[in-house]
Design goal:
The complex is a heterodimer of chains A (229) and B (141). Chain A has one domain (5-226). Chain A is 6% helix and 25% strand. Chain A is built from one helix and 13 strands; from the N terminus they run ββββββαβββββββ. In chain A, the strands form three sheets. In chain A, strands 1, 4, 5, 7, 8, 10, 11 and 12 form an eight-stranded antiparallel β-sheet that branches. A three-stranded antiparallel β-sheet of chain A has the order 9-6-13, with no helix packed on it. Chain A has a two-stranded antiparallel sheet with strand order 2-3. The longest helix of chain A is centred in the middle third of the chain and has 14 residues, at 89-102. Chain A is globular, with a radius of gyration of 17 Å. Chain B has 141 residues and is mainly β. Chain B has a five-stranded antiparallel β-sheet, with no helix packed on it. Chain B has a four-stranded antiparallel β-sheet with strand order 6-8-9-10, with no helix packed on it. In chain B, a hairpin with a 4-residue loop joins strand 2 and strand 3 (32-34). Classes of the chains: A mainly beta (229), B mainly beta (141).
Chain lengths: 229, 141
């Protein structure tokens, strides 16, 4: 019973809003835009901590939820995709992970106010406030950095489990309310008010002021999940 | 050597090309039912959760390497079985509807989850049926 997982920029039970940014090198996906050293992307106002790539995950399984939803960052290399970055896919992947490993995690890191935050970040609380989003110093359960510690979020074994706080229920694909009893790693069927039927996450790419390289970087965000056999 | 608990399991050596998996159910009368290798069939009658649960002797996860050598990688007594789950992986940022592929098979009891991965690794974690809201009913009895 194959199940399709949807990764979208707006809610749609049928998966109508999947990402389709044209990617350098070919193919479509998510383009985070340009990242200025000492800032992050997507960015609106750094001082106000605004701007984030919001994404929704849901699926079309009808018998049961999907479970064990986890994320990790991987090398961009894949059949059908030509690496369009400035260096090699492997070298750039290593650079992005190293940037995550080197990142600051203080209160100033959330908006890179100190120029010491780096790497690909994910915030897994659907209703987090603008002020608090990506504040890893106080919300480390929900805020993750790929490559943190040099070991976290880099393969299946070290993948980050989807947080329960990411889960919401939307009756009409517009309104968002808290799932009543969400479970970490689980995304319910469409209209599941208990587990929630959408995971809402936020992502950013940070660069330290000292990051030396320029040009395009491409990495693959991998997901793993389990479903009824 | 299988580790003994409610679920028995073993970690396999990494194999070139990785492992494929299937589920297997053995019954007290000697009959067996086996799923396909890395096969999430659409026909519900061929899925593990629709198989007869009474008089089950044991449930197993079988691993097969590229040379078609087969080993039991996890098993539990039949009455302890809660279900199986295929484990998928896929790329998010470069696809909309994720074209995921099977990378493992999980054996679930009322208390444990043993995930068997294509690398030969096994991950054990606590499990409770309450973690799954409205798991489907409809096993053949």
């Amino acid at each position: 019973m194959a199940v399709t997982l949807f990764f979208q920029d707006a809610k749609s039970a049928a998966g109508a809003n999947v990402y389709a940014d044209a990617l350098i090198g070919g193919g479509t996906g998510v383009d985070f835009g340009q990242v200025v050293n000492g800032q992050y992307a997507p960015i609106i106002d750094q001082s106000l901590n605004t701007g984030a790539q919001i994404a929704y995950l849901n699926h079309d399984a009808v018998e049961s939820p999907i479970t064990e939803v986890k994320f990790f960052l991987s090398n961009y290399t894949a059949t059908g995709f030509t690496y369009g970055g400035s260096n090699t896919a492997a070298a750039d992947y290593s650079s992005i992970l190293a940037e995550g490993q080197a990142s600051d995690e203080s209160a100033s890191a959330k908006n890179n106010g100190n120029g010491l935050a780096g790497g690909v970040w994910m915030d897994m609380q659907w209703d987090v406030s603008t002020t608090n989003q990506f504040d890893i110093s106080t919300r480390s359960t929900n805020v993750k950095i790929f490559g943190n510690g040099g070991t976290d979020g880099i393969d299946l074994a070290s993948a980050f489990t989807l947080g329960a706080d990411a889960m919401l229920y939307s009756a009409d694909d517009t309104l968002e309310v808290d799932a009543t009893t969400p479970v970490a790693g689980s995304i319910g069927k469409n209209n599941d008010t208990v587990l929630g039927d959408y995971a809402k996450i936020r992502m950013r790419v940070y660069l330290r002021t000292a990051f030396p390289d320029g040009g395009y970087f491409q990495v693959a965000l991998q997901v793993s999940y389990a479903h009824l056999a | 050597m299988l580790h003994k608990n409610k679920i028995s399991y073993q970690v396999l050596q990494p194999a070139p090309g990785g492992y494929s998996f299937c589920w297997k159910l053995e019954y007290l009368n000697g009959l067996t039912k086996t799923g396909g290798w890395n096969c999430d069939v659409k026909d519900e009658s061929m899925q593990a959760w629709r198989q007869k649960s009474t008089d089950m002797l044991r449930a197993q996860v079988i691993a097969m390497d590229k040379n078609r050598n087969k080993k039991v990688i996890a098993e539990c007594p039949g009455p302890e079985l809660f279900g199986f789950e295929w484990v998928y992986t896929g790329r998010l940022l470069t696809f909309g509807g994720v074209k995921a592929r099977i990378c493992g098979l999980t054996l679930l009891t009322e208390t444990e989850r043993v995930a068997c991965y294509e690398s030969g690794q096994v991950a054990i974690s606590p499990f409770s049926p309450q973690l799954i809201n409205k798991y489907p009913q409809g096993r053949q009895e």
